[in-house]
Design goal:
Elements (H helix, E strand, L loop, with lengths): L1 H13 L1 H8 L11 H15 L6 E2 L1 H15 L9 H10 L8 E7 L3 H10 L1 H7 L6 E8 L10 E8 L17
Parallel strand pairs: 1-3
Antiparallel strand pairs: 2-4, 3-4
Amino acid sequence: MRQFAIAALAFLLANPAARAEETAPVPAETAERTPAEELADLIARHRGALSLPGLVRRPVLDRVASMTAAHLAGTGPTPMPNHAEVYSDLVRRLYIPMMDLELAAHAGADAGGALAVLLGDPRTAAALAEAAVEEFGIAVEPNPAATGPHEAFTWVVLLAKPLRTPAESADSPRFGQ
């Protein structure tokens, strides 16, 4: 085995084309993924295993999840920004009020550990398995109040369903959209 490693090293040193391949930039599809992206992939696999449709990740939902994660971790604004304003913004963006679910977990840096915490609670596991949900946002925030490595981060998943029908009343913040 040691002779193979020495021979491979000699080949790389003697072959400029092989050295160029070793130092080439990593393609985007193999670049390191963020913890939120890893959790999104794990949620997609979990829902796929349950024969549920995939979810679409939306930046507006990421922002709301990020606000919640920062608040829960104690690093965001206190008190939490007015939920009525947040929900009004979601309604303007054509999301159904009361058809959103915020799931939170204190876990380590590993997305798999965060998913395990979420699936360990029957209520959050049921929310992740909700067929009516179509879109989601994710945020991860360091948890300065952690009592150990398994609580080092606050993970928030916001599940939502977009509205498909136009507003019926001129009083609606989404009237005319």
